[in-house]
């Protein structure tokens, strides 16, 4: 008998009890056998097995550059100070006095900007557990985040930063160092957090993201955080992304009038003027 199945009967002779129990077990086994033959069961069973990404060399564009295009599974990194699966963190963040004060006073219950559906910013978007799609040409590299359906388009033709207004995702430009694509981002508005747990940064944040593709199925990713107001020195995270040709990114919508916000469980963040 499978555990957890209660087949106690209180009336009738013992022989009848056994016959009823035997018929019940036979019926249960028949149902289970049918379930294992259904497509849904097979799909769920397959998902429990370790995914094996495509093998082979990294693909290249017609111009000979490494091509990072595809849908990628990223490690979920809610805390950039901790190690995790496919991610190496920075255990002790080198805070300045201002940065440490900002970190200690942060309380998500008092108003985290993501609860009001405001843009996550670059690092927190890359940190999310949802997949990310990359689209690439000879002149541009596009992040398509499933999280809130955000996107960021980066010129990778070697141009310099512009002089635009500060933004949530910053101003990004890219260049090649051999087979490594380097994306440099500045001009943040200072209204985001680096990760879910709330590590701070200022509007002086300077991010350097490095992408390399050791084989067809993986991206080796490194992000360097440089913010002289918040940290005494630059620090970095390293991660591995896995190609998922069996996935598609989905629509994701966060609405400003979401139920948790207007019922008071999420507070609107307050920014200094």
Describe this structure in words.
The chain is of the alpha+beta class and 273 residues long. It is 19% helix and 23% strand. The protein folds into 2 domains: 14-48; 70-262, Beta Barrel (Lipocalin), CATH 2.40.128. It has helices at 14-36, 39-48, 97-105, 122-127, 259-262; strands at 70-73, 87-88, 132-136, 140-145, 151-155, 171-177, 180-186, 206-215, 218-226, 235-243. Strands 1, 2, 3, 4, 5, 6, 7, 8, 9 and 10 form a 10-stranded antiparallel sheet that branches. The protein is globular.
Task: Present the secondary structure layout.
Blueprint: H1 14-36, H2 39-48, E1 70-73, E2 87-88, H3 97-105, H4 122-127, E3 132-136, E4 140-145, E5 151-155, E6 171-177, E7 180-186, E8 206-215, E9 218-226, E10 235-243, H5 259-262
Antiparallel strand pairs: 1-3, 1-10, 2-10, 3-4, 4-5, 6-7, 7-8, 8-9, 9-10
Question: Which properties best describe this structure?
Answer:
alpha+beta, 23% strand, Lipocalin, 273 residues, disordered N terminus, 2 domains
Number of domains: 2
Number of helices: 5
Major sheet summary line:
10 strands, antiparallel
The overall pLDDT, averaged over residues, is: 86
CATH class of the largest domain: Mainly Beta
Show unreliable segments.
Answer: 1-14
Encode the helix/strand succession as letters: HHEEHHEEEEEEEEH
Name the CATH homologous superfamily of the largest domain. Calycin beta-barrel core domain
Taking the alpha carbons of the first and last residues, their distance comes to 68 Å
Strand residues, percent:
15-25%
What is the tally of beta strands?
A: 10
